[in-house]
Design brief:
2 copies of one chain form a homodimer. In chain A, the strands form 4 sheets. The first copy, chain A, has a 5-stranded mixed β-sheet. In chain A, 56% of the residues are buried. The longest helix of chain A is centred in the C-terminal third of the chain and has 25 residues. Chain A is an alpha/beta fold and 436 residues long. Chain A has 3 domains: 66 residues, Orthogonal Bundle (Arc Repressor Mutant, subunit A); 137 residues, Nucleotidyltransferase, domain 5; 173 residues, 2-Layer Sandwich (Nucleotidyltransferase, domain 5). The first copy, chain A, is globular, with a radius of gyration of 22 Å. In chain A, helix 12 links the parallel strand 14 and strand 15. In chain A, helix 1 crosses helix 3, helix 4 crosses helix 5 and helix 11 packs across helix 12. Chain A is built from 14 helices and 15 strands. Chains A and B meet through helix 11 of A and helix 11 of B.
Chain lengths: 436, 436
Amino acid sequence: MSSRLPHRPSTPAPPVPNVRAVPAVTPVGQPSRPVTGALVLDLIRTAGTISRVELASRSGFTAATITNVVRDLIAEGLVHEVGRARSRGGTPRRLLELDRTALYAVGVQLDRCTSAIVVTDFAGRRVAATSLRGVGRGAPGETLRTLADHVEDLLASAAVPRARVLGVGLVTHGPQDRERGVILTPQPTPAWQDFPLTATLADLLGMPVLLENDATAAAVGEQWVGSLDVDTFGVLYMASGIGGGVVVGSEVYRGRTANPVEIGHVPLDPRGPACSCGNAGCTESLAGPSAVVARAGADPGLRDRLRMSGDADDVLADFERVARAAARGDQDARHLLEDSARHLGTAAVTLMNLFDLDTVVLAGPAFATAGPLYVDLAQRAVERGALARLLRPVRVRLSTDVGAAAAVGGALVVLRSPLGRPAARESAGEVLPALV
Amino acid sequence: MSSRLPHRPSTPAPPVPNVRAVPAVTPVGQPSRPVTGALVLDLIRTAGTISRVELASRSGFTAATITNVVRDLIAEGLVHEVGRARSRGGTPRRLLELDRTALYAVGVQLDRCTSAIVVTDFAGRRVAATSLRGVGRGAPGETLRTLADHVEDLLASAAVPRARVLGVGLVTHGPQDRERGVILTPQPTPAWQDFPLTATLADLLGMPVLLENDATAAAVGEQWVGSLDVDTFGVLYMASGIGGGVVVGSEVYRGRTANPVEIGHVPLDPRGPACSCGNAGCTESLAGPSAVVARAGADPGLRDRLRMSGDADDVLADFERVARAAARGDQDARHLLEDSARHLGTAAVTLMNLFDLDTVVLAGPAFATAGPLYVDLAQRAVERGALARLLRPVRVRLSTDVGAAAAVGGALVVLRSPLGRPAARESAGEVLPALV
């Protein structure tokens, strides 16, 4: 799910302690009250309103457990009753919903070229959002300080009490060590490799920070805000690089070390350009914004006509110039994008045939303008080469929010983590936000 | 996980009723005694010998539940006590093990060119095995009759009482509808598409038959009989075609319709030969035995030197001729295999980068002689292009039993299914085998 190229590190950096540890998830088989509560909260969040009986049915917990957990959640001000369900003969059931303003979460999507910040309420609804230039040439500490300032500004402008913010989901490229909160490759610069991202941002903001892959977060966000009618699908994420994510039965596919679906670095053409990932002709080297922009820059007519900046740290802005020119009818620009889209279509076929999918969503800021063209050509590719077409319709869709789905996913990762159940934080020694 | 090419069916065949329905698995959240029993049986099978305390710890069930379930299993003659664990201060714990001869299972691996049959005891140990020519040009009914005869012969020669055979795991290429027990593509001939495979074989043998993908079964079999030290790995399966399987945390990756990891049909080279899967240059069309044999046949010197049969229904025999010639030092034959192995190495990189794996196993009858050459070149490919190499060693291994791992997996699928717990069959209306 990387969006940038990995290098073999010359000397491994020492492990960086995470100064603000996230409470551990209780192991399976030893369910505790906080974990049960987190699951119940998420069932209510997903349903909007729901009865206790339905909660018991969907969670598999007994009615007695649900009664006790819900009583605690109401006492903590996280859940309240909102009326009764229409009667079907018996006594109408009282409905529960989350107190939306009880708590909040922040999602920060970080890329070399562009970043997005989203604040959601406890129900997962967006209450504020902003976007800004990416990390570019910035040193990690400096970039995180800028991001922290933007988070503070956004919370203030939305009048969200800081004490009610559960934490931040920081989403960026992989491979990552999510436990340590670090990126494992020297992208965009060597200073970023093994830099304590979550620990630093947590210190700056005074709140817990979780790390997540951007493509995975986009999948989570798309499932939340999008109009998907399936619970199994793939995501092709294109920012300054290309990553992927897969959700199966509403669960994120995690693999062995939680760094799966590196669709940007699967080899599609043995005669393609060498990539620092070690492969020739991988998806990113053939279809990524850098490849499109490099080809546009090599065409003097196109370069001058589109006023390309040629700045590698601003490749998405140049890519957007190509996309807008293609949308205006510039045939040279269109051919470049079509070539990229055909390769991305091949990647979509690979994703479908390996993960047994019939739906792939295109997400990420690179699709802001070029999305429809990519969807069109990738759809043709999967109709030609995805095996699932033999059994049922196959579909490539554009994300309902190409720019912010990943940031929304980052906030949801926080809401669904043990952080989303304050009692769990209390037991882990965290300060419980003052609840009404 | 197909090993053959799919076609779009011109007219969909009508659904075929499965005359011998497999008992349904009890849905999650409503555990019943038989399902609990099946899990406990598999924990004992995996451990060899184990105490009740350890069973409770590994299963998550309470000590009381384990006591009750084990009492039932002992009364049914499936489990017995075999002594006591060495004391660590307290009372030595009594150890349990399966009664190996209580029940048996059969695995049948079916391919166009070669088939293998394995009988295992209740503990999953191989008690008899045979191999035979594959389906070739045979009609499905005729082929299944031949296979049924071989199964009967094998059971008789091993003195396995038929009444103690739980059932047959039939493993072959995909895509499949495992519930209906049919193959969804017209391979090897149109007569096979939608033919009631499991229903017919069940009628012939008078025992339940389950359908499973060959590559998936090879993964299950390899994990059982092999020396893998990881619970997350991929399998590249090569018989007359190429398929794949992935196991994550000891669980088979199933995808949306249980037809995942079609690694034979991911596009690796846009200039490669067209495949009926719809893609150009897919793994199977570049690296599969048919491709190797076709290139050998197009070289008159090699064709005559190797006495190639040129029979498409016997492509694995011709492939084996090329492999043996390469092993004897024939450079032309070696170059053909090396070219195939390099493409398979690219497929291994794709598998690792998408499923986040560090281990890929090569299994299937095509590796009987050529295995070491393929392992060598695929290992080089993953060391160059698999992202996991940046974090830990990446390995390509040869299956410990390239010819029979899939058949062993087929038998294990039966043992681990609800069929493996006779009480579950009883409740589904099946005749319970007479147990001592």
